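# step 3/5: fold
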Amino acid sequence: MNRPSRRPLTPWTLPLLLLVACWSSVAAAAPRPMSRDAIIQLGKTVHGSSYFWGGDTWRQSGTCPGKCVGSGCPNCSHVPYPSGCPNLGADCSGFVSKAWQVPGPIATYAPGGHPYTTTSFLGSSPHWSGVPRASVDKADALVNSSHMVLYVGVDKWGGKSVLECAGCSYGCYYHYRTIASSFVGRRRANLSPADNDADGIPDLRDNCPRKTNRGQRDTDGDGRGDACDADMDNDRVLNTKDNCPLVANPSQRDTDSDRRGNACDSDDDNDLVPDVRDNCPLVRNAGQTDTDGDGLGDACDADDDNDGVVDTRDNCIKQSNANQSDADRDGRGDVCDHDDDGDGVDDAYPAVDNCAGVANPNQSDIDRDGIGDLCDPDADGDIIRNESDNCPTFANFDQGDQDQDGQGDACDNDRDGDGAAMRDPTNEADNCPDVPNPEQEDVDEDGLGDACDSDRDGDGVANSADNCADTYNPEQGDECPNNPPPDSESGDPAPGDVTSDDPTAPPPNPFNPGDPINVFEPDAPADPGDPTANEPELDPYPSTGPDNPDVPIDPNDPPETESPEDPDGTPSTDPYDPSEPFDPNHPGNPYNPNDPDGTYSDPYNPNVPDPSNPANPPGSGTNPGEEDPADGSGVLRDPTRTDGAIDPSGNLGDGVGYGDRGDGGYVSIPAGSPGCGCGGADVSIAGLVASLLALRRRRR
């Protein structure tokens, strides 16, 4: 018997058989572990989607829910909705298989992921097993021959909540309903330990078992995850009121009032300069000006110029001037005042004030050294500072002051202090300008006073040799009608003697207060015990030593006590310090008698130490009270200011948990009502193979 020949297989027959084999192997494998909570969490995302007979797709975001048109499925139709969306929706078995992720994991929006119908779930499978109705628990399925639902739980009143795709009119939603007795229980295989929030972390290890938080973040380390912690930073301010919920800040300080606390605000003052680079993080200063370069911006620096004077009291805020000198007292310090002394002459351009710190409109400069007299420490240029110069406006290097009145002879209109020429600065009215003679006696009327006239009577015989010094007697006869009585002090008949007991005596000797000036007494050998009374005292530093040539040596007189001003008995005039006569045996600082080593120092500032003097104690420099370097330079040390900047950096998070989308309306379906037959999945593999074989037989 001839057997009909077999037709060759079509090109699509082999791929179809491979697909069937693949599905069969997947169907035979157990699903991956999944917790009950994870199933419910995934299932809730279907809420709001449309019913689509034979469908199993939806978007978890709720967009593109699709639209079912008509009634009496499977005769209903389904269209994409809104316009432009894919055609999404699910029926009852398609929904449960996606929620259970059987036969394998597949995205909810990927079509064709399940080979089941409602009746498939009534049989056995490696992916599920039967469970008594009384033992049904969360994430189990309840199924009958025409419908199935995903069981969620029961409330305290006995109401059962389910997730289901119920038909064209209802769609897919989460609600309460009664369950007919025809429904039996089914449980997914390979359930993992309880995970109520379906975040993949078992409740026993989950710091928020009822709130999805896969990261398990716990900012304050209190064992309660941020997702369920009402005070995530544990600063006792609830997250809902905390302007830095992830950074502890009990004070809630918010400098720029942007509702973000300073503790977590990267720009506290909102000046567009991040705090990590802002030199005034709490004060707006977009320009970042820092006059003194101390790292603290002027906007928040209490001392912009770092001169030790706070800005509120500083008369030159932007220029350092610790001494706050203000010559013209106009409230603006000299260092920032273009006319320090207020004399109308600019300190610099366009004019140059030769006394920028002292008002001197006439710009007088006696020594023409470019420094005005009013501010020149040596106005007359005689190398003697004004405060030590007995003639500060007349150059007098020798500082001569014969009447010792503190006014040098160069500028003293009465050099000898006898009052005779008080109105004549040239001393021309005094007939003895260098010898005190207030009476201005002039016996011979030659214009030269008797006190300084070597021949008082003008008889051609010197006083020292004239037997009548006050009576004209060139022949030197014995009669002297003008001679006074004998000296009552010593008993010596001394012509012309005026002694201390005479009421007409001149002022006391300034160097020996016990004895008046006695210019007429010759040396008296007959008075061996008197050291001074009978000696002429023309020397301002009286002594009988050999180095005092203007005083006769009296061999019968014991030496006189040396002058306290000249300890070694060598009188001289110190041009630098009138209080101590210049003496080569007494070296000293020509500008400062207090300088122990006598080395040159600053002539204008006696407080500046001598650079060559290693002994430079604190407080001796330009700025008393500040410690100077050991080298004695007088340079003020600049104290280091430490500034601490606020570091607001931290791991910030939004703290937003995954909300529960499932909050739909409650729709009650009466018990026993027929569900819509989940026919979309009736196109099973077995049916497809049977169809192919029938087609082949017809073609024979």
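# step 4/5: annotate
The mean pLDDT is 73.
# step 5/5: archive (pending)
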